[in-house]
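Hey, I was hoping to borrow your eyes for a little while. I've dropped the whole record in just underneath, so have a look:

——
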Amino acid sequence: MLRLGVSLLAVGLALSATRPAAVEPLLSVTVRTVPLNPADPAQARLGRLRYRGGLEMRSVEPRFGGLSDLRVLDGGRRLVSISDCGSALLADLRYDERGNLGGIREPRLHRLVAPGGRPLAEGEEDAESLALAPDGAMITGFEQRHRLWRYPPGAGPFGLPPDPLQAPPGSTALDADHGFEAALSLEDGRLLVLSEAMEGQRSALGWIEKGAVWEEFALPLLYLDDAPREPFRPTALALLPGGDVAVLERRYPPVAVRIRRIPRNALENGGDLTGEELARFAPPLTTDNYEGLEVATGPDGLPRLFVLSDDNDCAKVNHRHGTSGQRTLLLSFTIGD
């Protein structure tokens, strides 16, 4: 009987470790549409991009905000995002009759858990990057305590506890605020990871999986004449049609954001990573602290690019929700048409 009791206890613990988390209640979010250019609401072109609608989202829920990366699933109809405060935002995306982004439905905040299903400890909450593996797993990169966790598929996004992944060896040299800022799963499942360049550096450290090892590379930063001392630093990655990589880059001060296209073969073979600029956001355009980037199939079956801003406003140590001057923005574009 004692052996049976122990066995049943072990089975119970195993099941509890893999059991999907309880469904979170619906979140009250106020949403309004925003133009690409408030000074010229008719503007729809931005470099190689055409504007297809954008949203500003607000909530009184203290855990809302701080969204740092995103993936868009189900033909452009499902948003998955992660935050600085250890939560995932899950919501359905709505489009108007012209196919422009028009709103969200059924938003929920899901608390991330650590390996084994335990709650995140203090200092573990800062989720900064999100990669979608070919099998549906969500690979999340964290700052402060730099690490990569793989949340397996099943029971919905983040429904099961994660497995820790081997981090790139060079990441131990990163300081607390410049960790795994951007992550991308390539078509074959290999990971591409970028750090946010540390102060005084003229390049950002990156790593790409080559077989069973990480290969390190340096992404050169762009400096412009209007701010010669402050470069654009990488904040997110997305895979473009054809296999090239898009890098979202942010500068502050003065605030500006750009999207850079890097040829895939340059990443694979150690080539020139200067790339080309697809678009740049700067005032008077709708510009904020953009940290998330995605390229996914839209509801019309064509590639759609999304950018997401981090308002740094979820409640955490030394910050009270509702006191940030930044916004949570989600903008949508088509590419090159």
Observations:
- The longest strand covers residues 227-239.
- The domain at 33-335 is CATH 2.120.10 (Neuraminidase).
- The helical segments are 2-18, 264-269.
- Residues 39 and 284 are 7 Å apart (CA to CA).
